[in-house]
Amino acid sequence: MSPKKTFRILIAKPGLDGHDRGAKVVARALSNAGMEVIYSGLHQTPEQIVNTAIDEDVDAVGLSILSGAHNTIFARVMKLLKEKGASDILVFGGGTIHRNDWAPLEAMGVGRIFSPGTDTREIVTYLVETLPH
Amino acid sequence: MPQDTAANTNRDPFAGIAPVKNLSGFEINPLYGPEDVKGIDFELDVGLPGEYPYVRGVYSTMYRVRPWTIRQLGSLGPPGEANKRIRQLVGMGANGISICLDMPTIMGRDSDDPLAEGEVGCCGGVAIDTIQDMRELLAGIELDKISINFVSNSQSAVILAMFCALAEERDVPWNLLTGTMQNDALKEYQAQKSYYFPPRPSMRLIMDTISFCIRNLPRFNPISISGYHLASAGATPLQELAFTLANGFTYVEEGIKAGMSVDDFAPRLSFFFKVHNDLFENVAKFRAARRIWGRTMKEKFGAKNPASWRFRVHTQTSGSSLTAQQMENNIIRTTIQALSAVMAGTQSLHTNAFDEALSIPTPQSERVALRTQQIILHESGAASTIDPLAGSYYVEALTKQMEEACEKYFQTIAEMGGVIACIEKGYFQREIAESAFRYQRSLEKGERIIVGLNKYADGEESQILLRELDPEFEKNKVAALKKYKEERDHDLLRAKGEELRAVCTGRDNVMPSLISAVRAGMTLGEAIGHMRDIFGVYREQAIF
Amino acid sequence: MSRRKSPSPEELVEKLLSGDRRAAARLITIIEDQSDQANDMMKMIFPHTGRSMIIGLTGSGGSGKSTLIDHLIGRFRAMDKKVGVVAVDPSSPFSGGALLGDRIRFQSHAIDDGVFIRSMASRGYLGGLARGTTDVVRVMEAMGNDVIIIETLGAGQDEIDIIHLAQTCILILTPGMGDDIQAMKAGIMEIADIIALNKADLDKANLCLSSLETSIHYGMDKKKGWLPRVVPTIAFASKSTDIRGVDELVQAIMDHQAYLHETRKIDEVRNKRIEQELGLVFKDEVEKVVFAGIKGTGKKRQYIESIRAGKSDPYSVVKEVLSTFLRV
Predict the structure, then answer these.
(1) Number of CB pairs < 8 Å for A and B?
(2) Same domain (yes/no): C223, C303
(3) Measured between beta carbons, which residues in chain A are less than 8 angstroms from residue C16?
(4) Of C221, C236, C267, which one is at a domain's C-terminal end?
(5) Which residues are bridge partners to B348 per DSSP?
(6) Same domain for C260 and C285?
(7) Cβ separation of C239 and B197 shorter than 8 Å?
(8) Residue from B352, B348, B347 nearest B337 by CA
(9) Are C299 and C182 found together in one domain?
(10) d(Cα C68, Cα C313) in Å, to the nearest integer?
(11) What are the structural domains of chain A?
(12) Do C215 and C295 share a structural domain?
């Protein structure tokens, strides 16, 4: 008897930025939707985030970035995931990431970027529809 | 409005209508009248502006004689660029400037710190590593004419040291310098999270800067006790009011413990509030703040100087209320918020640019933000009379309501052992996270409407002109910093480092050693590094 | 984003035994999800387990468990031991989801190849552990970890109990939280091999310390051999030089382990662990067989109706089911 798949999601705050309201609200919303959410705290390096994602065998990693350094950070995370053979982990994000930056991020392999004010249900739906069961 | 006929007088016209609550959680009645202000003694509880308890305004003439300071943020990564912007804003009529720091500087790291990679000069903050950066930042600015507000916190002592050293170089006497430093550690633990040291050493540094300013920079406000960040993290206007005041009273207690007389430093304490969309709730919040502060300073702390009773506040319109969708709507939101701040009697005001949700303002959006204040001042009539909403049944009732609810929070905090104990127990963080989550839920359930976001959304994209930061900047800054570090007197620097560590270990005021250290070329990161070694590091509990 | 390419069970286990983290992580998920291959994989893994040091830490939220674990990891790493950590937190009984944030406290070890950290949600199990925890610990052993640390909120009253899984059980208490009194009343002292009195710099610490030691002294059966040791600690301090008691805690752990090995009590402990696992697996397999037989037949509904109608009772129903499916 195989029970329903429970998604495991890592919500991470890379870099020096300490604004965690959004990350925490999303973490809570995902957990209310039945997902297991690992929150790794503030000031994480891309190395810490990727190692955590792999050890926790998460289905997806959500990066919350309000520092403007998203291009650098996403690139680093995607590179590390690839090096460690974990490119199948979905990477998505939110914060203050301008739309002009979305296409280049997508080209890197990043999934959806959510603008400020996104309804958290949209994020839940996105994950449920995108992640393999 | 139903006609007053014999048949109608017994029926409540509002029966069965859906209740409406403001952000603070108070139910807003459809109608307010004399019964709602019955317990208020207008002479004692409300009074006159410039007179205790200052509900109607901290000064007797307010904007009729001197308008609020139009204080806009003027910073951008490279100190040279920021300097250009500052001069532009001064040229356009701003008489006060706010300077934001970039993320590495906020976290006490130099531009060449490995942790700073990718974040140097980001998001409208200026990278300040050394006194050389301070020189470039404030080149051509008359330090005794323009009021400078440094949005600095845990690194404030170092920033102040650089500012003082610069003034000395330029032969500007310290007692002519005007401005503010945010320098509020308590809200870092509660909300913004850019703390370094644990609460005790943070308090010591703050008290050192306050006592230094009392003696040497009498026109400079050494602390801006902030509610803005609490609100940004999710605190309701009521929580912002209660927690900010509780923090303020904690600083007063600490000042007394540090041996200062309350009337020496209380006049130097200033505040920083957010103003959100509900115009009336905000006005009530400010008025309640003035009454509570005045009363507590006089009756509980025994302050005798009226300057100690006055709650002076800088206000910023709410960044978190701005949407990335239909950005032009943000101009209207900012206008309403600014109008509220003016009607609430703020001492200075920053209005956000409409594209704040996604980037640093462009010259165009910045101009709109500035003009918003100028139009309110010159065209709206709101500045022509003091405390225009006084006497309004609604606003007076709401002011009283907020004050009473605030007292309840004070009681809870006291029962839990005071502000610092509450921080350690995660009390504020929990309250704030809860409000943040509740707010998000209310949006998703449609109980609260944000136009263009969960109603009248049309999926259309606003065309924004992005202002890009020169990617070469970080490289150049790091290279310049390396060169600067090499050219310093290393022996002198080492001596200064030891001196600083000794002062931190002891109980003398850190400012003199910090000033001589930065003059000798010590970087911000190095200074903070020394302090971290002595004071230790704070780590928090994650609370959802 | 590419779909997951699933290696075969054999490949995964082989990789696990060579210390591959991804394989270990994947295996743990397979176990947690109770996927079909889980049992076969566990059969392959079992022979390679049973030799690690297993430490359990329980204590209420805010007691400083996670911070102590952060230090313990550091100490064991300094001894050149590989460390696996399982941090268990409750799932919401309503949504089934969970917020797992224990690892924040030991994230500095996230870049150490010799440390493997996994957060688990209880997924409906009460008492502090998850159904999969026993198997996850086996996986971590097979991976090559010398020490495995299990962190949980509670000591169980359920089918899985940390006291049967861990060899050395540490209870974290703090002064003045009322736990000390409660703990004494609940007899939880009998469960803990070591009691860490954390935040030992707080007001009532000394009082607490002496009342704990007194309770142990008078309450314990001296013949048992190991007297629970109380170690005062200060796990969190802003300056690393102000942290206290960690060395003493590590010493207490090593002493307890030495005691277990020297007196051969370790065998008893290992037996208890196996007994617990047998019980869990047995219960699961029996349930599987029965449900597989009944699923989709409508029989469950029929049984329930007949009991409600007074025509039968739960005992008779189960007897019938068992005799059908287990030939009992």
Answers:
(1) 89
(2) no
(3) none
(4) C267
(5) B69, B314
(6) no
(7) no
(8) B352
(9) no
(10) 51
(11) 8-130 (3.40.50.280)
(12) no
| Among B126, B297, B143, B332, residue whose Cα is nearest residue B225 | B297
Q: Residue C285: give the domain boundaries.
A: 280-325
**Contact between chains at C25 and A1 (C-beta distance less than 8 A):** no
CATH code (residue C84): 3.40.50.300
Chain length of chain A = 133
Task: Please state, in angstroms and rounded to a whole number, the distance separating the CA atoms of residues C245 and C232.
Answer: 6
Alpha carbon of A1: minimum distance to chain B alpha carbons (Å)? 34
Is any Cβ of chain A less than 8 angstroms from the Cβ of C101? yes
Q: Structural domain boundaries of chain B?
A: 70-381+419-444
- C259 and C297 fall within a common domain: no
- Give the least confident one: A114-118, B510-514, C143-147: A114-118
C243 inside domain:
yes
Q: Cβ contact (<8 Å) for B233 and A117?
A: no
How large is the average pLDDT for residues C49-60? 93
Residue C22 lies in a domain: no
Q: What are phi and psi of C67, to 5 degrees?
A: -65, -40
**Residues A29, C92 contacting (CB under 8 angstroms):** no
- Looking at every residue in chain A, the average pLDDT score rounds to 92
Its ipTM equals: 0.94
Across the interface, which of A16, A73, A99 has its CB nearest the CB of B104? A16
Length of chain B: 544
Give per-residue pLDDT as tens, B482-531. 999 999 999 999 999 999 999 999 999 999 999 999 999 999 999 999 99
Domain assignment present for residue C314? The answer is yes
What gap in Å lies between CA B373 and CA B56, rounded to an integer?
A: 21
Instruction: Please indicate whether, in this complex, the C-beta atoms of A120 and B122 are within 8 angstroms of each other.
Output: no
Per the listing, tokens 């609260």 go with: B448
Give the DSSP letter string of B151-167.
Answer: E-STTHHHHHHHHHHHH
Q: Does an H or E element contain A37, and which? A: strand A36-39
Residue C249 lies in a domain: yes
User: Is the domain of C288 the same as that of C260?
Assistant: no
Is C219 in contact with C192 (CB distance < 8 Å)? no
pTM: predicted TM-score of the whole model, two decimal places: 0.85
Mutate to test the interface with C, among A26, A35, A36, A82 (most CBs of C within 10 A): A36
CATH class for domain B70-381+419-444? alpha beta
pLDDT tens for C113-131 read 999 999 999 998 877 888 8
User: Can you read off the two tokens belonging to residue C241?
Assistant: 């030089």
Q: Phi/psi zone of residue C208: left (φ > 0), alpha (ψ -120 to 50 degrees), beta?
A: alpha
Three-state SS for B35-53 is HHHCCCCHHHHHCCCCCCC
C32: which residues sit within 8 A by CB, 6+ positions away?
A6, C120, C123, C130, C132, C136
Q: Which amino acid is at A77?
A: V
| CB-based contact, C203 to chain B, within 8 Å | no
> Of the candidates C1, C97, C116, which has its C-beta nearest A109's C-beta?
C1
Provide, as residue numbers in chain B, all residues whose Cβ is less than 8 Å from the Cβ of A20: 193
With CB atoms and an 8 Å threshold, state whether A48 touches C101. no
For residue A6, give both structure tokens. Answer: 């429970």
Q: Is the dihedral of CA B31, B34, B40, B45 positive or negative?
A: positive
CB spacing of C21 vs A55 below 8 angstroms: yes
Q: Are residues C135 and C284 in the same domain?
A: no
Count structural domains, chain C.
2
Q: Do B433 and A24 touch (CB under 8 A)?
A: yes
Work out the average pLDDT over B12-41: 92
C180 & C309 share domain: no
**Greatest C-alpha distance within chain B:** 94
pLDDT at A1 over 60: no
